[in-house]
Design brief:
- This protein is α/β, with parallel strands linked by helices and 315 residues long.
- It has 13 helices and seven strands.
- A seven-stranded mixed β-sheet has the order 2-1-3-4-5-6-7.
- Strand 6, helix 7 and strand 7 form a beta-alpha-beta unit.
- It is elongated.
């Protein structure tokens, strides 16, 4: 085992002055992670009261300034604004001469690759797209969650090592995404993560209506196991009445949802159809059982479950 002394982060070479444009949930967390790696946050911009409070909590003593002043002070600038605002922000900064040659300009949008930074590239900046595949709370816990987090990375080939180094310093794992694949990559993450929150929240609402006092406690072990099984086994982890072809049970579900939560019926039917398609394709749903099931799902008919069809619904 090496006995050489560990180098203090602040004494490492090539430490960068870091600025944040857009103190939402993501920017301050990434800047704080870079600070732990020895880099130096020097400026942050934020418009709303919430963003200013967030910056003060996660980046104490870092001055709040305008976006142009952030770029003036920083070697590495994190552009952490909403996706739709990013192109206009980049164009505006480039047109006003705020971008400096040799400056690392990093955006964290999942939708865009490096090409959205072309106006800054023409001004001499070094463009990087580093998107953390993580949900953020806007609190210090986000910095801890970056450990082992994958980052969708898109950058010019000559900046590949720089991009990888920054992700690793933030505790993450770089995953290279082609420029043209960024929208699909982002759609996949939104489908899995954003829609999961909606599904879980709706499930908890329905359990409360059914009289369950602690739906979170009931769902926690079940959803944890389901997620683990899905990540390990993919479609082989499919269970439940749709995968089994229990058309009567599914019809009963639709009937109850129409009575108690009609706003959830469309989502239930859409997910059930997708589940049936995948179960059929992977040989889990028997073709002879699929016809009645798909008929229920096609028109949302709220039939009556047959005898014994509701047994084992939690499987």
């Amino acid at each position: 085992m090496s006995t050489s002394p560990q180098q203090d982060p602040k004494d490492r070479p090539a430490r960068l002055a870091v600025g944040v444009v857009g103190a939402g949930r993501v920017g301050p967390a990434l800047a704080a992670a870079l600070q732990l790696a020895g880099h130096r946050p020097v400026a942050v911009s934020g418009v709303s009261d919430a963003s200013r409070r967030r910056a003060a909590e996660m980046l104490p003593d870092v001055p709040l300034v305008s976006p142009a002043q952030v770029l003036e002070r920083a070697d590495l600038v994190l552009l952490t604004v909403p996706d739709d605002a990013l192109p206009g922000l980049v164009e505006g900064l480039a047109e006003t001469g705020a971008v400096r040659p040799g400056q690392l300009l990093v955006h964290t949008s999942g939708r865009y690759g490096a090409r959205v930074l072309d106006p800054a590239l023409r001004a001499g900046a070094l463009p990087l797209a580093l998107h953390p595949a993580m949900t953020f709370t806007g609190t210090p816990v986000d910095v801890q969650r970056l450990a082992g987090c994958s980052f969708g990375v898109t950058a010019p080939e000559e900046l590949r090592l720089a991009a990888e180094a920054l992700v690793i310093e933030m505790g993450g794992e770089p995953e290279w995404i082609a420029e043209e694949s960024r929208p699909l990559y982002h759609a996949a993450l939104a489908l899995g993560a954003n829609h999961l929150v909606t599904l879980v929240a709706e499930s908890m609402d329905l359990l409360r209506v059914a009289g369950v006092e602690a739906p979170d406690r009931m769902l926690g072990p079940l959803l944890g196991a389901a997620l683990d099984n899905a990540l390990r086994s993919g479609d082989a982890a499919l269970t439940g009445p749709v995968a089994r072809g229990d058309a009567g049970t599914v019809a009963a579900h639709v009937s109850e949802l129409r009575r108690h939560a009609p706003q959830t019926v469309a989502g239930y039917l859409a997910m059930a159809r997708a589940t049936a398609d995948r179960a059929l394709a992977h040989g889990l749903l028997k073709p002879e059982l699929a016809e009645d099931l798909l008929g229920v799902l096609a028109d949302g008919t709220a039939g009556t479950a047959g005898p014994g069809s509701a047994e084992g619904d939690a499987r």
